[in-house]
Design goal:
alpha+beta, 2 domains, four-stranded mixed beta sheet
Length: 191
């Protein structure tokens, strides 16, 4: 009678150890409820981006030299633009289309269709807040949001996207109106 009880206790302990070990392995190998994964993942926190307060009215302040502005303006004039299409503007730190962007996109799509445009480049940009890497990703997300909307409209042309982030601004002054112009997707007609 002693032996069966001793054997039962050993089996019970072995089962408990197996369950405990497998639960511990589950969280490290990716199995489990998911809660333990969040706690154990190494995350790189994004830096918080803060919008700067608008400057007082008066002379616009710019840190970009006149020579650099001329070079950036020349670089920004990419493609053989046959037509002037309005830019699509975005809110601060956002890549979702604004309500006021939809009529602009509808009009741009109609004009591109009417002119028989074959290929277009959508240039995403960001303002000067945040890192260059962050703004490159944000600019790409903005360009892809515009491309997705144009495809939903049925625009059947080659739509390419690129991002210049904050490194190729369309506007150089350090003020709210200028930052808004740079939070945009710019249309460049290629063919």
């Amino acid at each position: 009678m002693h032996r069966p009880l001793h054997r039962l206790i050993r089996v019970f302990l072995a089962v408990l150890l197996t369950i405990g070990a497998s639960a511990g392995c589950a969280t490290k190998s990716g199995y489990g409820t998911g809660d333990e994964l969040i706690a154990s993942e190494e995350r790189i926190p994004d830096q918080a981006i803060r919008e700067r307060a608008p400057q007082e009215t008066g002379t616009p302040v710019t840190r970009t030299s006149p020579g650099m502005r001329a070079e950036l303006s020349a670089r920004n004039a990419t493609g053989a633009e046959r037509t002037i299409l309005p830019d699509v503007l975005f809110d601060f730190d956002r890549a979702t289309l604004r309500i006021d962007a939809l009529p602009v996109l509808d009009a741009n799509a109609k004009k591109l269709t009417d002119e028989g445009t074959k290929r277009i480049l959508l240039e995403g940009r960001g303002d000067e807040m945040g890192t260059s890497a962050y703004n490159l990703v944000l600019g790409e997300r903005r360009a892809k949001a515009v491309r997705s909307y144009l495809k939903q409209l049925g625009l059947d042309i080659d739509l390419r996207t690129t991002s210049y982030g904050k490194d190729r601004p369309l506007c150089f002054e350090h003020q709210q109106e200028c930052w808004q112009k740079n939070r945009s997707v710019h249309f460049v007609v290629k063919e």
